[in-house]
Design brief:
Radius of gyration: 46 Å
Number of helices: 7
Number of strands: 0
């Protein structure tokens, strides 16, 4: 160590030696200094006191009825408590923090009893009303047009054969076995007249 110190020449002015700066990063400090900083960190957070058990008792039952400001204050106090070592938290604090974060309240609340039956019956009511409206509309409509009868469609097939429409693959082709224009069920009664509207 003495060899590393600068020596002054005889009769010269004394040298001023600047002290070395100490790094505050913990990875430069020895283990004892790290332990000291860790204790300082704990002392800073030691001012955060445990939340009393009566405050946290029955939080599951009281949470929904608490005013929003009181809910926020309790959550902030628990959040500050969670910043310290979790081994220092009480069991009540851990349970309350978990329940407030993940418990069945707010959007995660359980449905009230009988809600499934109520939804089912309202759905059935809606389907029933829709069916009644559909049937009322169907009873008030005009009958199907004359072109939607099997007899009229058979007459259309005969007309297309007489006109030689689609002679390669259609109704007029040789050996055609398809239905042609027939798509409706046969109607009872005589075939429709040409003049019928």
């Amino acid at each position: 160590m003495l060899r590393s110190l600068p020596r002054a020449a005889p009769g010269s002015a004394p040298l001023r030696v600047q002290p070395h700066r100490i790094h505050t990063n913990t990875w430069h400090l020895p283990a004892a200094a790290c332990l000291f900083e860790s204790r300082q960190h704990q002392k800073r957070h030691a001012g955060i006191h445990a939340i009393s058990n009566p405050t946290l008792a029955g939080i599951e039952k009281r949470w929904e009825g608490m005013p929003p400001q009181q809910q926020a204050d309790l959550w902030m106090a628990l959040r500050d408590r969670m910043k310290v070592n979790w081994h220092e938290m009480t069991l009540q604090e851990k349970k309350a923090a978990y329940w407030i974060a993940f418990g069945p309240h707010g959007p995660r609340s359980l449905p009230p009893p009988g809600e499934g039956k109520k939804i089912f019956w309202y759905t059935m009511l809606g389907v029933g009303v829709s069916g009644v409206i559909f049937l009322l509309i169907r009873t008030q409509t005009r009958p199907a047009p004359k072109t939607m009868t099997a007899q009229y469609q058979a007459m259309t097939n005969e007309y297309l054969k007489a006109q030689r429409t689609e002679p390669i693959t259609g109704v007029s082709s040789e050996g055609y076995t398809g239905k042609g224009m027939i798509q409706s069920k046969p109607r009872k009664g005589p075939p429709p007249d040409e003049d019928e509207d």
